[in-house]
Amino acid sequence: xxxxxxxxxxxxxxxxxxxxxxxxxxxxxxxxxxxxxxxxxxxxxxxxxxxxxxxxxxxxxxxxxxxxxxxxxxxxxxxxxxxxxxxxxxxxxxxxxxxxxxxxxxxxxxxxxxxxxxxxxxxxxxxxxxxxxxxxxxxxxxxxxxxxxxxxxxxxxxxxxxxxxxxxxxxxxxxxxxxxxxxxxxxxxxxxxxxxxxxxxxxxxxxxxxxxxxxxxxxxxxxxxxxxxxxxxxxxxxxxxxxxxxxxxxxxxxxxxxxxxxxxxxxxxxxxxxxxxxxxxxxxxxxxxxxxxxxxxxxxxxxxxxxxxxxxxxxxxxxxxxxxxxxxx
Length: 329
Fold this sequence. Notes:
CATH class of the largest domain: Mainly Alpha
Order of helices and strands: EEEEHEEHHHHHHHHHHH
Shape: globular
Structural class: mainly alpha
CATH topology of the largest domain: Serine Threonine Protein Phosphatase 5, Tetratricopeptide repeat
Mean pLDDT: 82
Helix content: 40-55%
Radius of gyration: 24 Å
CATH architecture of the largest domain: Alpha Horseshoe
Strand order of the largest sheet: 1-2
Largest sheet: 2 strands, antiparallel
Number of strands: 6
Low-confidence stretches: 1-13, 94-106
Number of domains: 2
Distance between the termini: 72 Å
Number of helices: 12
């Protein structure tokens, strides 16, 4: 049954078409759910089109609510390094932390900091031989032990292969195993013209898109950057949101900046809090800066600061500290 109330449609049962009221009867009438609101159903495209003028406002609001629900729920846990089993830092800057401390003993500006020059340093290495992503600390320790030529995980000999053989191996992994990480690495190599590949932005976008479809948050983040450079802010925001939902805290921090610039401070703070709680230095910096401007309460800063420092502590190890020292000396 479908009733109209105040100009809006109230679907009384989920088993009938919202336009004509025809009920689903097994294989006789196959109802399809509206992909935006995931509530109303239609028996065919014509009914959906005819019903749109009545449904569009409710549909858009419901879709926005669903998106917010997905966007601001707790992000998935960080992936662990397969060797040390510690959470993988997204940015090297997150590895340098203060010792664990309580709110009462941590001054407002003494959150975990590091040299900004470290922000773009590689925190991990992906190996085509086994498809594993290894944290910089474990890679550094393995090489210090004299195993410069081998993969830290499967011990495969890397140096015996030419650049072309390594690229071929990576391509085979990307295609045969439908490996999102391999597609992302290949996309990055095409994007920057490294790893023995000629720069090809079209190929990079294709690989990034395929990796994103498989759930790669880093691919979504890189696609957002490309669309941002092209001035397509709608697609840039879409991919930032997809990356954030998948747990990419840097993408979430950038979403916060985007919302702040649009005047949506409440949304911006939500993004920064989630990103900072995952150990994102830049998000914590944004919160502290806005606290100094009187836009954020001390209570909010305190709760987020505790989560931020704890996250940094969880990602820190002697091996990772040694890696940081090695690349900064």
